Amino acid sequence: MALQSSVSFQSILGTSHSEDVLDVFIDYVCPFSAKMARSIEKNLKPLISGGGKYDGKVRVIIRLHPQPWHATSTHTHESVVAVGQVEPSAFWPYTLDLFEHQEEYYDIPSSKLTALEIRAKLVELASKHVPANKVPLLEDLLAFKTTPNGGTGVTDNLKYNSELFVHYMRCRIP
Fold first, then answer.
1. Residues 67, 160, 144, CA angle at the centre, nearest 5°?
2. What is the DSSP code string of the chain?
3. Residue 148: which CATH number?
4. Average of pLDDT values for 97-118?
5. pLDDT in the model for residue 158
6. Which residues does 55 contact at the CB level (< 8 Å), separation at least 6?
7. Residue 69 and residue 29: Cα distance in Å, rounded?
8. Does the structure show a pLDDT above 60 at 165?
9. Residue range of the domain that includes 47
10. Number of domains composing the chain
């Protein structure tokens, strides 16, 4: 499926001219998604980039799918979208780092944190991957909008990912 330009950072390997596309749906609080991301880095990346066997033939797109039964899932996904918007090249390194810290965002460890505290903690982790002068942009993107239920500066791009998942499933379920 196509990838709108505002989330082009989600294309982590290959090019738009690649013959085939591998869509990988992940949730940043899912242990199985962490296994997939590590496998992509260890096993697929050498095959698809840098002259590997499938270089130029396969494109890998990370599709964000926050699972509602993971209480902090939306927050972690928001932070990844914010990083991608601020520093696109940091999307995949931050993704891998977030998976290394994912247990901190599991239900029980994060149960006494507010949404603002979770976002601040995510910005702190993300700040290792973006230039210091761009950290305020991350904070701004993750701040609530002025309307009572308006979301954040990344809500629309996160909605795009969720809507895409629904469309993707409709096309594949008979």
1. 75
2. ----GGGGGGEEES-TT-SEEEEEEE-TT-HHHHHHHHHIIIIIHHHHSTT-TTTTTEEEEEEE---TTSTTHHHHHHHHHHHHHH-GGGHHHHHHHHHHTGGGGSHHHHTT--HHHHHHHHHHHHTTTS-GGGHHHHHHHHSPPSSTT---TTHHHHHHHHHHHHHHHHHH--
3. 3.40.30.10
4. 96
5. 85
6. 47, 48, 49
7. 10
8. no
9. 5-172
10. 1
Which residue shows structure tokens 């702190």?
124
Give per-residue pLDDT as tens, 83-95.
Answer: 999 999 999 999 9
Best CA proximity match to 66, nearest among 77, 50, 56: 77
Residue 54 pLDDT > 90, yes or no?
yes
Residue at 172: amino acid letter: R
User: Which residues, other chains included, contact 21 with Cβ-Cβ below 8 Å and sequence gap of 6+?
Assistant: 1, 14, 58, 59, 60, 61
Task: Look at residue 171 in the predicted model and tell me its pLDDT.
Answer: 57
Pair 78, 39: CB distance under 8 Å = no
Tell me how far apart the alpha carbons of residues 53 and 44 are, in angstroms, rounded to a whole number: 10
Residue 14 has pLDDT above 70, yes or no: yes
Joined together, the tokens standing for residue 164 give: 């895409």
CB neighbourhood size of 169 (10 A): 10
